Give the backbone structure.
Amino acid sequence: MDDPLQIQEAVNGVLAAVSETVQLSDGAARSLRSVPAADYLVRRFEEAATELNATWLRLFRASVFGPAPAGAAEQLELAVDVGESARIRNEDGTIPSAAAPRLDRVNEEHMAEVERVLFLMSETRRRAERAARDLARAGADPHLVEALEQAERELETTIDVFFKGTYSHVPKDQLSLEVPASDLAGTVAI
């Protein structure tokens, strides 16, 4: 892969995969907006698309403009809009049960969208990892290898946040082991 054209094709392949993932995530958010119970999923899809867009932009800049000048403070930070979710979180980061989504209102089709986006994100991350490894072996410009490695790390973080935000959420009222007194009527204490 010593040919500059092959190197650019490898980077373009990762850019295309990130772009496809953004489009799928945006499409899932649009299709779920009409389902009130899926508001939290819409936010997760939108957050993932925003993070993926930032990753795409950083990688694109590195591939087109080369390495950033030494000391340049122009590094784009992950552009997750956490304003809305931060407003409804407790100090410990948990979502109060009154604001928490009810997972029993999310159907199989919604979760299939989550799976599709997660799968595509994972494939994109693997593609970035492979491209970084191949370009490093081929002696490509270090800034391209570094940009691909950074993209792979960012994709891993995006996957982790998206996965935890969609699968690991349990409303507070479902965490309680307390049994209502009305459910104990007619039982014998041992």
Remarks:
- DSSP finds six helices and no strands in the chain.
- Residues 54 and 77 are 8 Å apart (CA to CA).
